[in-house]
Fold this sequence. Notes:
By secondary structure, the protein is of the alpha/beta class. The protein folds into three domains: 4-73; 79-150, GMP Synthetase, Chain A, domain 3 (2-Layer Sandwich); 158-244, Orthogonal Bundle (Arc Repressor Mutant, subunit A), CATH 1.10.10. The chain has eight helices and nine strands. A three-stranded mixed sheet has the order 1-2-3, with helices on one face. It has a three-stranded mixed sheet with strand order 4-5-6, covered by helices on one side. It has a three-stranded antiparallel sheet with strand order 7-9-8. A hairpin with a 3-residue loop joins strand 8 and strand 9. The protein is globular and about 65 Å long. The model is unreliable at 226-245 (pLDDT under 50).
Amino acid sequence: MLDEDEIKAHLETADRDYVIDVRIRAYDEAILLYIQRERIAPKVKKGFTSLRQIKNLQKHLGAHFSTTVDAIFVKSESHSDLEAGFFQLLNRRFNDRLKSFYISFADEKTIDSWIEVQGLDDLLKTQISKYFSDLLTGTDLILGDIQWISVKNNMPSTPALLRLIKTLQPVEVGALSESLKESYDSVDEKWLTKTLDNLRRKGLLHWQKPGSYTLTADSLAFVPAGTRRSSSDIDRALALGRRKW
């Protein structure tokens, strides 16, 4: 699992003080960087960053932590309160069907958002969009783009699955399934077998007799390595130690 404190410490060593907060988005383990919009300039200078520098930081963190990195642009320190207020109002209107909600300022007046919804369909998208837009009526804000996420069963992401396989490899389906169920209660062997076969076809896994799986070189791009606390190399060393005992 990713660690927010570790990411913040990494940013401090890189002197990225324009990032005022870091969060982990639960549904896909993406890193969210909260950046003050008023500190963005056309070019990097003292006390200011640029969109290009932010993009480079996203690429760097994505490679280092093996996950997606999104930038959330905020107007003030009250951004979290504004976000929480909209989330509460939307959930009150739609019976707690929103599971996560994030906003980012595309510019001074335009709000982009990520909305994760239980039982999402086209009608619900229209209803939520209209209600959200109505909430902004009378303010100096307008609704921009919405990225919709439909809530799925509690299943591991591909990076999470590959990290666990690296820790346990070589590992058979049954043992992998039991280990996954400790964190993902919706996993069953039928789903897992199909998923592993798809990953094998994509060249991310090796299958070897009598039925165990290991990572390929190509899959290592998805899996963090090294000496970080969340490194899969450390996880694997601990797992091997437990096996010996």
